[in-house]
């Protein structure tokens, strides 16, 4: 099991999976840019909306993932297995509700979020089709999280590869009318996203059946345990609030960008793709560190938990700084792949230097924040996030970016300050060792645990 939960063994498949998910979004952006910059703005805006709504089911999925790794570390296999079933059932219900709402009210939602009137017809199409598949997104998120936290990071990676291949082929077909498919533009891109996610969900569910030592059977879908669900929510609700705080703060910032104009919105969408690529390996290390730290915490190996955190942070800082330098040097040329509008390229290029400052702070915050979450200190991370995101990242962004006219640069300065403030507070918390209070004493005897007792 130690070999299975090795930091590098965990992180490289996560990196491949995230890279391919990033490529999914980048291919969307690149291909949609061939339709129009307005279509790109709609996709970027809608994806922020979807990210905000996913927090409603990641409350359960994230809490379940951490708890599964902890239970496996404590040798409570049946508890981990029961938690996985609970998570899938709970997120299925949430995802179904979101799908119904987004299919029924795309125009109302777009208007409420200040979408420019010229973009509303495109928003109707994209939000209703892709949003109608939120049930699939909910299941994909939960199944991937469960499988990944058992130490099997390769299965979600394989799924991501298949999903990307299908998505790229269908995107090309629908946008350019290839392979006998109709030339449906943004509608085709939305349908391509929906089909690729459906196939990925089916594959992940098959893998989920064999995720634990004891195979899942149809009667297992009835599994429920009030005590374990309470444990999931105790860890999950602060995680959910934290994630919701971040995605809704980003959504509000996109509203500010709407106020600045369509070109600023498109430039931010393109830069978001470059930044995501820059941070991929760092994010992979942070997720791998979280899984390993949760497993070690379940075993009661506290010294190794700390070693994992700082080893992950050192490696993460090196890779994100190198990647940020590459983006800084070649950023203008990379932006040229997305658009030939000189004003949009100039707006994006003006942010490349700030990205060099942003990425190390993001790694500090993400790496230590995820590790604190892994050991159950989710409420502290939630509290500092609520304060910093809404006061610094959103509040001061509005003052500098909109009121004082600094535009995108003012908004980026506040994003940088937010990352470093949260990162510094997480570092202080980790070094204080307050997270170690009430530590799990170590593994239980085989066959014990809440699920076994039930």
From TrEMBL:
**GO MF assignments:** antiporter activity; xenobiotic transmembrane transporter activity
Q: Which residues cross the membrane?
A: 7-25, 45-69, 81-105, 125-146, 158-179, 191-212, 232-257, 277-297, 309-330
Give the keywords, sorted: Cell membrane, Membrane, Transmembrane, Transmembrane helix, Transport
Subcellular localization: Cell membrane
Provide the membrane topology annotation.
Multi-pass membrane protein
Q: Which residues form a coiled coil?
A: none
Q: Which GO terms describe its cellular component?
A: plasma membrane
Q: Which InterPro entries match?
A: MATE_fam, MdtK-like, YsiQ
Q: Tell me yes or no: is Membrane among this UniProt entry's keywords.
A: yes
Q: Which superkingdom is the protein from? A: Bacteria
Asked if the Swiss-Prot or TrEMBL record annotates the protein with the keyword Cell inner membrane, the reply is: no
Q: What is this protein called?
A: Multidrug transporter MatE
